Please model this.
Amino acid sequence: MKTPMAKAGDIKPQWHLVDASQEVLGRAAVKIAAILQGKHRATWTPHVDTGDYVVVLNAGQIQATGDKDRKKIYQWYTGWPGGQKERTLAQMRVQRPEEILRLAVRRMLPKTRLGRAMLKKLKLYRGTEHRHEAQNPQPLDLGTGRKARA
Model:
């Protein structure tokens, strides 16, 4: 018995449409990262990009549990002296709301060229309008089992 290994030309990626308006940030990011990597397929191969495209609507409305709006801090360094910057989750919601989900998913992907290619297949939009109607994305329920409280 041989283990089948997927080849780059054999994979036909699908397009999925996710509404993140009432999803919890971490739970949604785990499911999206798995789809981008292709781990939902039986033909998943670690060294080949077998994942699908994911279009996320209402990315700015994703929910965080507990007191994370005030306590979660995003940090980065500009490369200049004194360039250590930080923002809370609440500040990120105001300035760059879709970046919250992008960062959560990015940190769950491999830190390689393959991971960067997978991240390019994630399309995030603040509202319900998107530019990918021609690809006919299929609605996907993340099935996280837990919705944020209204």
Remarks:
- The chain has a mean pLDDT of 93.
- The CA atoms of residues 76 and 85 lie 5 Å apart.
- The first strand starts at residue 15 and ends at 19.
- Residues 14-65+95-139 form a domain with the Ribosomal Protein L13p; Chain: A; fold (CATH 3.90.1180.10).
